[in-house]
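Hi all, a correction to my earlier message: I attached the wrong file for glycerophosphodiester phosphodiesterase. Here's the right sequence:
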Amino acid sequence: MVLAASPLLPGAAQAQGMAATPLVIAHRGASGERPEHTLAAYDRAIDAGADFIEPDLVVTRDGVLVARHENEIGGTTDVAERAEFADRRTTKVIDGAALTGWFVEDFTLAELRTLRARERIPQLRPANVRFDGLYQVPTLAEIIALVRAREAETGRTIGLVPEIKHPTFLLTQGHDIAALAAAELAAAGYVDAEDAALIQCFEVGPIARLDGLTGLRLVQLVSAEGAPADRPDLPYAAMLTAGGLTEMARHADVLGGELSLLLQPDGTPAPLVAAAHAAGLAVHGWTLRRENQFLPPALRRGDDPAAPGDLAARWAMLAKAGVDAVFTDNPADAVQARAAGGG
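and the right structure:
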Protein backbone atom coordinates (compact mmCIF):
# COMPACT_ATOMS: atom_id res chain seq x y z
CA MET A 1 0.00 0.00 0.00
CA VAL A 2 1.58 3.27 -1.08
CA LEU A 3 1.20 5.87 1.64
CA ALA A 4 0.97 8.75 -0.81
CA ALA A 5 -2.27 7.34 -2.23
CA SER A 6 -3.98 7.18 1.14
CA PRO A 7 -6.40 10.02 2.01
CA LEU A 8 -4.62 10.88 5.23
CA LEU A 9 -4.25 14.60 4.84
CA PRO A 10 -7.51 16.29 3.92
CA GLY A 11 -7.07 20.03 4.04
CA ALA A 12 -3.31 19.80 4.43
CA ALA A 13 -0.71 19.61 1.65
CA GLN A 14 -3.19 18.96 -1.13
CA ALA A 15 -5.41 21.94 -0.22
CA GLN A 16 -2.36 24.18 -0.18
CA GLY A 17 -1.57 23.20 -3.76
CA MET A 18 1.60 21.34 -2.82
CA ALA A 19 2.57 17.91 -4.07
CA ALA A 20 1.28 15.08 -1.92
CA THR A 21 4.69 13.43 -1.99
CA PRO A 22 7.13 13.19 -0.51
CA LEU A 23 5.28 13.59 2.76
CA VAL A 24 7.19 15.30 5.56
CA ILE A 25 7.71 13.26 8.74
CA ALA A 26 9.12 15.26 11.63
CA HIS A 27 11.87 13.03 13.01
CA ARG A 28 11.52 13.12 16.80
CA GLY A 29 9.63 16.36 16.24
CA ALA A 30 11.42 19.45 14.97
CA SER A 31 14.56 18.13 16.61
CA GLY A 32 16.78 20.55 14.71
CA GLU A 33 15.14 23.39 16.65
CA ARG A 34 14.13 21.93 20.03
CA PRO A 35 15.43 19.05 22.17
CA GLU A 36 14.13 15.88 20.56
CA HIS A 37 11.07 13.98 21.74
CA THR A 38 9.57 16.84 23.72
CA LEU A 39 6.06 18.23 23.30
CA ALA A 40 7.74 21.48 22.26
CA ALA A 41 9.57 19.70 19.42
CA TYR A 42 6.38 18.02 18.20
CA ASP A 43 4.41 21.27 18.44
CA ARG A 44 7.12 23.14 16.54
CA ALA A 45 6.93 20.50 13.79
CA ILE A 46 3.17 20.82 13.54
CA ASP A 47 3.50 24.61 13.23
CA ALA A 48 6.01 24.03 10.42
CA GLY A 49 3.46 22.02 8.47
CA ALA A 50 4.80 18.50 8.98
CA ASP A 51 2.40 15.83 7.77
CA PHE A 52 3.46 13.35 10.47
CA ILE A 53 5.41 13.42 13.72
CA GLU A 54 7.55 10.54 14.90
CA PRO A 55 7.78 9.51 18.56
CA ASP A 56 10.22 6.74 19.42
CA LEU A 57 8.63 4.62 22.14
CA VAL A 58 10.16 3.00 25.19
CA VAL A 59 8.42 1.86 28.37
CA THR A 60 8.64 2.71 32.08
CA ARG A 61 8.91 0.18 34.88
CA ASP A 62 5.17 0.54 35.49
CA GLY A 63 4.32 -0.10 31.84
CA VAL A 64 3.74 3.40 30.46
CA LEU A 65 4.82 4.22 26.91
CA VAL A 66 7.00 7.33 26.74
CA ALA A 67 9.03 9.01 24.01
CA ARG A 68 12.83 8.71 24.01
CA HIS A 69 15.15 7.84 21.16
CA GLU A 70 16.66 5.09 23.31
CA ASN A 71 15.82 3.45 26.59
CA GLU A 72 19.20 4.73 27.87
CA ILE A 73 18.62 8.36 28.89
CA GLY A 74 21.97 9.59 30.16
CA GLY A 75 22.42 11.85 27.14
CA THR A 76 18.87 13.10 26.66
CA THR A 77 17.89 13.97 30.24
CA ASP A 78 19.55 15.40 33.34
CA VAL A 79 19.51 12.03 35.11
CA ALA A 80 23.33 11.90 35.40
CA GLU A 81 23.19 15.02 37.59
CA ARG A 82 20.50 13.68 39.90
CA ALA A 83 22.09 12.24 43.03
CA GLU A 84 18.92 10.42 44.03
CA PHE A 85 19.22 8.24 40.93
CA ALA A 86 22.96 7.58 41.06
CA ASP A 87 22.34 3.98 42.11
CA ARG A 88 20.23 3.36 39.00
CA ARG A 89 23.29 3.56 36.78
CA THR A 90 23.95 0.08 35.48
CA THR A 91 25.21 -1.93 32.53
CA LYS A 92 22.92 -3.94 30.30
CA VAL A 93 23.46 -5.95 27.14
CA ILE A 94 21.05 -4.55 24.54
CA ASP A 95 20.93 -5.94 21.03
CA GLY A 96 24.23 -7.71 21.65
CA ALA A 97 26.17 -4.68 22.93
CA ALA A 98 26.99 -3.74 26.52
CA LEU A 99 25.71 -0.27 27.43
CA THR A 100 26.19 1.59 30.70
CA GLY A 101 23.80 4.28 31.83
CA TRP A 102 20.29 4.89 33.10
CA PHE A 103 17.39 3.02 31.52
CA VAL A 104 13.74 4.05 31.28
CA GLU A 105 12.48 0.60 32.21
CA ASP A 106 14.14 1.03 35.63
CA PHE A 107 12.08 4.15 36.43
CA THR A 108 8.42 4.54 37.24
CA LEU A 109 6.58 7.25 35.35
CA ALA A 110 6.46 9.35 38.51
CA GLU A 111 10.24 9.13 38.87
CA LEU A 112 10.78 9.88 35.19
CA ARG A 113 8.59 12.97 35.56
CA THR A 114 11.16 14.53 37.88
CA LEU A 115 13.75 14.54 35.07
CA ARG A 116 14.10 17.17 32.37
CA ALA A 117 15.03 16.74 28.71
CA ARG A 118 18.21 18.11 27.20
CA GLU A 119 19.74 18.46 23.74
CA ARG A 120 21.38 15.21 22.56
CA ILE A 121 24.00 16.74 20.22
CA PRO A 122 24.83 20.16 21.72
CA GLN A 123 28.07 20.45 19.73
CA LEU A 124 26.04 20.60 16.50
CA ARG A 125 22.93 22.31 17.85
CA PRO A 126 24.08 24.78 20.50
CA ALA A 127 20.94 26.88 20.07
CA ASN A 128 18.87 23.97 21.35
CA VAL A 129 20.79 23.99 24.63
CA ARG A 130 18.84 27.13 25.59
CA PHE A 131 15.85 24.84 26.08
CA ASP A 132 17.59 22.30 28.32
CA GLY A 133 15.75 21.73 31.56
CA LEU A 134 12.40 23.08 30.38
CA TYR A 135 10.56 19.96 29.27
CA GLN A 136 9.54 16.62 30.71
CA VAL A 137 9.67 13.27 28.95
CA PRO A 138 6.23 12.98 27.30
CA THR A 139 3.96 9.96 27.34
CA LEU A 140 2.39 8.59 24.18
CA ALA A 141 -0.98 9.60 25.62
CA GLU A 142 0.17 13.22 25.88
CA ILE A 143 1.52 13.18 22.33
CA ILE A 144 -1.81 11.90 21.03
CA ALA A 145 -3.62 14.57 23.06
CA LEU A 146 -1.39 17.24 21.50
CA VAL A 147 -2.10 15.91 18.00
CA ARG A 148 -5.85 15.90 18.63
CA ALA A 149 -5.76 19.44 20.00
CA ARG A 150 -3.74 20.73 17.05
CA GLU A 151 -5.97 18.91 14.57
CA ALA A 152 -9.00 20.64 16.07
CA GLU A 153 -7.19 23.97 15.95
CA THR A 154 -5.81 23.71 12.42
CA GLY A 155 -8.51 21.66 10.72
CA ARG A 156 -5.95 19.30 9.19
CA THR A 157 -4.96 15.72 9.84
CA ILE A 158 -1.64 15.26 11.66
CA GLY A 159 -0.24 11.76 11.44
CA LEU A 160 1.73 9.68 13.91
CA VAL A 161 4.57 7.31 13.03
CA PRO A 162 5.73 5.79 16.33
CA GLU A 163 8.75 3.51 16.37
CA ILE A 164 8.93 0.78 18.98
CA LYS A 165 12.46 0.48 20.30
CA HIS A 166 14.26 -2.73 21.33
CA PRO A 167 11.14 -4.93 21.57
CA THR A 168 13.03 -8.22 21.94
CA PHE A 169 15.19 -6.85 24.74
CA LEU A 170 12.21 -5.28 26.48
CA LEU A 171 10.42 -8.64 26.48
CA THR A 172 13.25 -9.90 28.70
CA GLN A 173 12.44 -7.00 31.04
CA GLY A 174 8.78 -7.99 31.21
CA HIS A 175 7.37 -5.50 28.70
CA ASP A 176 5.64 -6.38 25.42
CA ILE A 177 6.05 -2.98 23.79
CA ALA A 178 4.52 -4.11 20.49
CA ALA A 179 1.28 -5.12 22.19
CA LEU A 180 1.29 -2.03 24.39
CA ALA A 181 1.68 0.29 21.40
CA ALA A 182 -1.00 -1.44 19.33
CA ALA A 183 -3.44 -1.36 22.25
CA GLU A 184 -2.86 2.29 23.16
CA LEU A 185 -3.15 3.44 19.57
CA ALA A 186 -6.35 1.42 19.12
CA ALA A 187 -7.83 2.95 22.27
CA ALA A 188 -7.12 6.37 20.73
CA GLY A 189 -8.94 5.43 17.53
CA TYR A 190 -6.01 4.39 15.35
CA VAL A 191 -7.10 0.96 14.16
CA ASP A 192 -6.85 0.45 10.40
CA ALA A 193 -4.92 1.27 7.26
CA GLU A 194 -6.87 4.45 6.55
CA ASP A 195 -6.03 5.98 9.93
CA ALA A 196 -3.23 8.53 10.17
CA ALA A 197 -0.84 6.31 12.09
CA LEU A 198 1.79 3.73 11.27
CA ILE A 199 4.01 1.62 13.54
CA GLN A 200 7.64 1.03 12.67
CA CYS A 201 10.46 -1.17 13.93
CA PHE A 202 13.94 -2.30 12.91
CA GLU A 203 13.28 -5.83 14.13
CA VAL A 204 11.51 -8.40 11.95
CA GLY A 205 9.57 -10.55 14.41
CA PRO A 206 7.67 -7.64 16.00
CA ILE A 207 6.47 -6.46 12.58
CA ALA A 208 5.07 -9.93 11.89
CA ARG A 209 3.43 -9.97 15.33
CA LEU A 210 1.96 -6.51 14.85
CA ASP A 211 0.42 -7.67 11.60
CA GLY A 212 -1.86 -9.81 13.75
CA LEU A 213 -2.39 -7.20 16.48
CA THR A 214 -3.40 -4.13 14.48
CA GLY A 215 -4.84 -3.06 11.16
CA LEU A 216 -2.48 -0.08 11.02
CA ARG A 217 0.15 0.06 8.30
CA LEU A 218 3.54 -1.20 9.36
CA VAL A 219 7.01 0.08 8.50
CA GLN A 220 9.98 -2.28 8.31
CA LEU A 221 13.04 -0.15 9.04
CA VAL A 222 16.37 -1.13 7.52
CA SER A 223 19.93 0.14 7.74
CA ALA A 224 22.65 0.16 5.13
CA GLU A 225 24.69 -2.23 7.28
CA GLY A 226 24.11 -4.90 9.87
CA ALA A 227 21.06 -7.02 10.63
CA PRO A 228 17.93 -6.83 12.79
CA ALA A 229 18.64 -7.41 16.48
CA ASP A 230 16.21 -10.32 16.57
CA ARG A 231 17.58 -11.88 13.34
CA PRO A 232 21.36 -11.53 13.28
CA ASP A 233 21.36 -14.32 10.69
CA LEU A 234 19.38 -12.13 8.27
CA PRO A 235 21.46 -9.17 7.04
CA TYR A 236 19.55 -6.10 5.92
CA ALA A 237 21.24 -6.57 2.53
CA ALA A 238 19.45 -9.91 2.14
CA MET A 239 16.15 -8.28 3.06
CA LEU A 240 16.60 -5.82 0.19
CA THR A 241 16.89 -8.39 -2.60
CA ALA A 242 13.83 -9.01 -4.79
CA GLY A 243 12.98 -12.10 -2.75
CA GLY A 244 13.61 -10.29 0.50
CA LEU A 245 11.30 -7.42 -0.45
CA THR A 246 8.56 -9.88 -1.40
CA GLU A 247 8.92 -11.55 1.99
CA MET A 248 8.94 -8.15 3.72
CA ALA A 249 5.69 -7.21 2.02
CA ARG A 250 3.94 -10.20 3.63
CA HIS A 251 3.69 -8.20 6.85
CA ALA A 252 4.95 -4.66 6.21
CA ASP A 253 3.39 -1.95 4.07
CA VAL A 254 6.38 0.39 4.00
CA LEU A 255 10.14 0.07 3.71
CA GLY A 256 11.89 2.67 5.86
CA GLY A 257 15.41 2.96 4.51
CA GLU A 258 18.56 4.89 5.29
CA LEU A 259 19.10 7.64 2.71
CA SER A 260 22.28 5.99 1.43
CA LEU A 261 20.13 3.04 0.32
CA LEU A 262 17.79 5.28 -1.67
CA LEU A 263 20.29 7.56 -3.38
CA GLN A 264 23.53 6.80 -5.19
CA PRO A 265 26.67 8.61 -3.95
CA ASP A 266 26.18 11.20 -6.72
CA GLY A 267 22.58 11.83 -5.60
CA THR A 268 20.88 9.96 -8.44
CA PRO A 269 18.13 7.45 -7.58
CA ALA A 270 19.19 4.04 -6.32
CA PRO A 271 17.35 0.99 -7.71
CA LEU A 272 15.86 0.09 -4.31
CA VAL A 273 13.00 2.61 -4.48
CA ALA A 274 11.60 1.16 -7.71
CA ALA A 275 12.19 -2.39 -6.49
CA ALA A 276 10.33 -1.74 -3.26
CA HIS A 277 7.43 -0.14 -5.13
CA ALA A 278 7.31 -3.15 -7.43
CA ALA A 279 6.98 -5.37 -4.37
CA GLY A 280 4.03 -3.29 -3.17
CA LEU A 281 5.91 -1.35 -0.51
CA ALA A 282 5.87 2.40 -0.03
CA VAL A 283 9.29 3.91 0.73
CA HIS A 284 10.25 6.24 3.58
CA GLY A 285 13.75 7.72 3.79
CA TRP A 286 15.63 8.57 6.98
CA THR A 287 17.02 11.05 7.98
CA LEU A 288 17.31 14.42 6.23
CA ARG A 289 19.20 17.00 8.32
CA ARG A 290 20.45 20.44 7.37
CA GLU A 291 23.81 20.46 9.19
CA ASN A 292 26.88 19.98 6.98
CA GLN A 293 27.94 16.96 9.01
CA PHE A 294 24.88 15.04 7.81
CA LEU A 295 25.03 16.07 4.14
CA PRO A 296 27.20 14.69 1.33
CA PRO A 297 30.30 16.78 0.55
CA ALA A 298 28.81 18.35 -2.58
CA LEU A 299 25.95 19.85 -0.56
CA ARG A 300 27.97 21.22 2.33
CA ARG A 301 28.41 24.97 2.67
CA GLY A 302 31.65 25.96 4.36
CA ASP A 303 33.82 23.98 6.77
CA ASP A 304 31.76 24.23 9.95
CA PRO A 305 30.07 20.84 10.53
CA ALA A 306 27.25 22.57 12.43
CA ALA A 307 26.52 25.12 9.69
CA PRO A 308 23.53 24.60 7.39
CA GLY A 309 24.16 23.05 4.00
CA ASP A 310 21.88 22.60 1.00
CA LEU A 311 19.01 20.59 2.47
CA ALA A 312 16.71 21.67 -0.37
CA ALA A 313 18.93 20.01 -2.97
CA ARG A 314 18.94 16.78 -0.99
CA TRP A 315 15.16 16.96 -0.73
CA ALA A 316 14.88 17.38 -4.49
CA MET A 317 17.05 14.29 -5.02
CA LEU A 318 14.77 12.22 -2.80
CA ALA A 319 11.68 13.52 -4.55
CA LYS A 320 13.17 12.66 -7.94
CA ALA A 321 13.96 9.16 -6.66
CA GLY A 322 10.26 8.61 -5.97
CA VAL A 323 10.48 8.39 -2.20
CA ASP A 324 7.00 8.55 -0.65
CA ALA A 325 7.96 10.24 2.63
CA VAL A 326 11.08 11.71 4.21
CA PHE A 327 12.03 11.81 7.86
CA THR A 328 13.67 15.11 8.71
CA ASP A 329 14.92 16.95 11.78
CA ASN A 330 14.06 20.19 9.98
CA PRO A 331 10.41 20.01 8.88
CA ALA A 332 10.13 23.76 8.19
CA ASP A 333 13.00 23.54 5.70
CA ALA A 334 11.57 20.39 4.11
CA VAL A 335 8.08 21.91 3.75
CA GLN A 336 9.67 24.97 2.16
CA ALA A 337 11.69 22.82 -0.24
CA ARG A 338 8.55 20.93 -1.23
CA ALA A 339 6.59 24.14 -1.76
CA ALA A 340 9.40 25.47 -3.94
CA GLY A 341 8.98 22.57 -6.30
CA GLY A 342 11.37 19.97 -4.93
CA GLY A 343 8.75 17.25 -4.92
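Sorry for the mix-up. The two ends are 20 Å apart (CA to CA).
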